[in-house]
């Protein structure tokens, strides 16, 4: 697969995709198409059990390409929306980790929030400053931020346009870990490598139950969990997990 705005490297069990769209890693159409193509390419590849998305340079992403707002369309593929890509990430059956080596604003933060896990640089800021442009967060920020940090804090971020510091993002539960910028990618890769050794079916069903469960009633969510439990209990991996435990050895999960 050829990507124009992503540097994609294959690691053992996972893939790292670095957005490479200087000067701000703006999420223009070519970037969104590349991420979408990468998700499609990795979906049924058994050897890819996790995806890390990071940025090149000082910013993770400054958001949607403001130049595109003024109608300067780049590229000739049909227009793709951040919603299309971010919903695909959020509902992806494999973990997607945002390795935020720099600040993320607007759509860049919305991309990170659609990922399942987030590692943030201690020098970075994360915000939804769209109100300063006279618009609103338009790729899911009004929905995901309150779900992640609560309505009161989310409203302050969006109504004032003031970004969170890394410390606030960690304290509010927006990110999993904060480390120095130069360690972000390594931390994300360590996490991806750990998840790549996990039981793929169990990970898939956990992602599904949590993601779908948060958007429905507890009763419906429990039904989703029960359906997932049924799938994994019938799997070869469940047998391998029990066997490895009693044989006191690491399990070798095959995703079957
Ligand atoms: C549905 C989703 C909607 C959205 O996402 S709307 C966009 C929301 N994002 C923002 O509002 C952030 C806009 N950018 C900024 O506030 C600043 O930038 C930063 C804080 C990210 C960085 O500031 P600094 O270090 O002073 O750099 P700089 O000179 O402002 O920008 C460097 C170059 O990057 C371009 N750029 C920055 N953000 C975007 C963007 N979102 N879309 C397109 N280009 C962008 C600038 O224009 C400039 O370019 P040149 O060097 O040619 O002057």
TrEMBL record:
One example of a Gene Ontology biological process annotation: fatty acid beta-oxidation
InterPro entries: ClpP/crotonase-like_dom_sf, Enoyl-CoA_hyd/isom_CS, Enoyl-CoA_hydra/iso, Enoyl-CoA_hydra_C
Reactions catalysed according to its record: a short-chain (3S)-3-hydroxyacyl-CoA = a short-chain (2E)-enoyl-CoA + H2O
Domain of life: Bacteria
EC number(s) recorded for this UniProt protein: 4.2.1.150
Listed SUPFAM superfamilies: ClpP/crotonase
Gene3D superfamilies: 2-enoyl-CoA Hydratase, Chain A, domain 1, Lyase 2-enoyl-coa Hydratase, Chain A, domain 2
Family to which this protein belongs: Belongs to the enoyl-CoA hydratase/isomerase family.
Record-given protein name: short-chain-enoyl-CoA hydratase
Organismal lineage: Bacteria, Bacillati, Bacillota, Clostridia, Eubacteriales
């Amino acid at each position: 697969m050829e990507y124009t705005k992503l540097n994609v490297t294959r690691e053992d069990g996972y893939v790292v995709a670095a957005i490479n769209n200087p000067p701000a890693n703006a999420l223009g159409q070519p970037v969104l198409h590349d991420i979408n193509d990468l998700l499609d390419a990795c979906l049924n590849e058994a050897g890819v059990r996790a995806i890390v998305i990071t940025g090149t340079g000082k910013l993770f992403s400054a958001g949607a390409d403001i130049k595109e707002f003024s109608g300067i369309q780049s590229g000739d593929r049909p227009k793709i929306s951040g919603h299309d890509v971010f919903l695909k990430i959020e509902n992806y059956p494999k973990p997607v980790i945002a390795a935020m080596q720099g600040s993320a604003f607007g759509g860049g933060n919305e991309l990170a929030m659609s990922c399942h896990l987030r590692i943030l640089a201690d020098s970075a800021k994360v915000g939804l400053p769209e109100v300063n442009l006279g618009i609103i967060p338009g790729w899911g920020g009004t929905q995901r931020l309150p779900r992640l940090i609560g309505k009161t804090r989310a409203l302050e971020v969006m109504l004032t346009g003031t970004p969170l510091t890394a410390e606030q993002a960690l304290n509010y539960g927006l990110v999993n870990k904060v480390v120095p910028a130069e360690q972000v990618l390594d931390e994300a890769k360590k996490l991806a490598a750990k998840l790549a050794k996990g039981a793929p079916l169990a990970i898939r069903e956990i992602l599904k139950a949590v993601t779908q469960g948060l958007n429905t009633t507890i009763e419906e969510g429990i039904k989703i969990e029960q359906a997932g439990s049924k799938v994994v209990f019938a799997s070869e991996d469940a047998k391998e997990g029990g066997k490895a435990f009693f044989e006191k050895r690491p399990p070798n999960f095959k995703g079957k």
